[in-house]
Fold these 4 entries.
Entry 1:
Amino acid sequence: MSVPSLFGEGERAVVRVLVGKTIVEQDAPALARLRETYARVVVDIGTGDGRFVLRGAREEPDALYVGVDAVADNMVATAQKARKKPAKGGASNTLFVVSAIEQLPDVFDGWADALHVGYPWGSLLRAFVAPDPEVLERIVRIAKPGAQIFVRLNQSVFDDGEYMTRLELPPFDPTRLAATLGSVGFEVESAEVLAGDVGERTTWERRLVAGSHRKTYAIRGVRSEAMAKSAPAT
Ligand SMILES: C[S@@+](CC[C@H](N)C(=O)[O-])C[C@H]1O[C@@H](n2cnc3c(N)ncnc32)[C@H](O)[C@@H]1O
């Protein structure tokens, strides 16, 4: 797969993570050591303000919660809060990664026991609507074989043809998306339109759908074993 990577030929692998409001670089061995200290990892792609990550980490102290977003500023307030003592709302079992999914180094491949994508916009939304097998495969590879994958898309956007045209997106085709997801190792178990609160508890879920008539296109499935054959060992 020809996804751009921060891993240059012979270069040290580097990932940018937020520690409070500071971006620091972490190399692959340090990240691998961190991964090994947790029995379970949950990854949220396009995490936005990262509150889903912090809340999950506080509820599940034995699991590592990883948020990935292209925009560091979105995650700063939560990354700062995460550094506080647990009594003050902090959680050390969090990692906030600053990267567009298209550029995410493959150091995270095979990490996730559960993988989430919630209400994406921009190029992340485009990947699901186009659909773009290269970006979708990049996402799916983060999940372990057999890991659960949850995707929630804003169906109300798909229902607004004019808005879709303004976003320069083609009409949403669920059948095509399911087939593309299947081809990149995401076995879809259910895909349905839900009205109102879907219980995901992210900021955009609350903003967009909770208590309103806006709809969510919810996809749930697992990373297939077949795909795992070509995945790196974890
Ligand atoms: C509407 S917000 C949703 C945030 C969060 N998931 C929630 O439900 O509250 C969409 C997020 O996707 C991020 N995003 C868009 N394209 C991305 C990409 N290619 N890679 C990583 N993040 C991306 C944006 O920066 C933004 O924070």
Note: Residues 1-11, 228-234 have pLDDT under 50 and may be disordered.
Entry 2:
Amino acid sequence: MRIDVSNLMYDDMVLEVEGQETFAVLEVSKARYRFLEPVSWKATVAKSDKGYLVYGKARVVLELVCDRCLSEYVWEDEIEFSFDTEEENISLDGEFLDLEDVLLGEIVVALPVKLLCRQECKGLCPVCGTDLNEGQCDCQVPTGDLRWAKLNKFFEKN
Ligand SMILES: [Zn+2]
Ligand SMILES: [Zn+2]
């Protein structure tokens, strides 16, 4: 996301720009998610005291991995962003603002806290790993707090 600001000569001017950015993957701590489509964006740019203010929207289509059943699913969203280039320590590269990194950062922030392929995803059986969305297994899954399951089994035996 490179924006040519050479036309932005006066303080009361704003620049309307749009474009597309092709990213391969989004890195989030230890996970990597594939972009299924280029990110298309629209932005408005204005001069600030010492830098530029950029705000706009971007359409993001990513392949995420469900926290519960571990299957891949498509996540599509329109995210909003706003940057103050001075705050973000972005200096001009010639006559361009290079905003790729901050845009990627905004996408990371916009990701859902819990990644779910669907709200009612049943997840995997904690015993045999069967995808419970696709069918039932015969495991006796202890109800309640699964962290205690092992201990409960131990007490049952003794
Ligand atoms: Zn799922
Ligand atoms: Zn099972």
Note: The two ends are 64 Å apart (CA to CA).
Entry 3:
Amino acid sequence: MVIESSTRVVAVTTAERCDRCGARAFVRTTFAAGEDLHELLWCGHHFAAYESKIREQAVLVQDERDAIDATVPPLD
Ligand SMILES: [Zn+2]
């Protein structure tokens, strides 16, 4: 079950980096492993690449890709 967060508990900050490539993270996801929760951070590119898998498995998806256009000019 995926819970979409409408209230942002902790904003994804500019200091947070994609766990795959180290680019600025715009999406924070939380996964449950037994009783533990662990977070993964994603840049827009890698979140898009894995989105269907992530949404199947994550318990929380905090998507702040809205901020991409406001802060980062497109590379291409
Ligand atoms: Zn990435």
Note: Residues 44-57 form the longest helix (14 residues).
Entry 4:
Amino acid sequence: MEAVRTPATAQPTRARTRLLRIESVTVTPHAVIARVLSAPDALRTSVSPGFAERALALLPGLKRHRCDNGSAHGIVGELDDTETPHALEHVAFELMALSGSPRNLKGRTAWDFARDGRGAFEVALEYDVDLVALGALKAGVVIVEWLVAPAGQAPDIEAVVEGLCATRSAALG
Ligand SMILES: [Zn+2]
């Protein structure tokens, strides 16, 4: 999984209340490609100390993830200081894996703030079942928002995975 960085330039930001929002999704034969908007004050997970610890407590399988981000500090260090939509990419893949998707699917989080506006990212996920990837992205947004700003009860991962398993069964049935 790689992240491509391009220099940020001053762009007007959109007003929004949520930390992450999926603006649109394109499904190609090989990948689900989401345009994800990240709030200006939550562009990186480092705004939220303990992000990786919380992420691993909820989703221990994240430890097994690899990331071709050029990060020397491994996935845990990466999760603690990376683009928030890149964390979403990994959380979505973990949810997919827990519901039966292969662990060798590839993803990519990319952005060009100069072209698309500050906070606009593209998160691409390969999939085995497209509806499972879509569901994982949608649930992943809620989970990552909680990881950034934990308030109230932690997300119910078991319920999310049950839902994705049901989606998988229905899609393959
Ligand atoms: Zn990655």
Note: Residues 130-148 form the longest helix (19 residues).
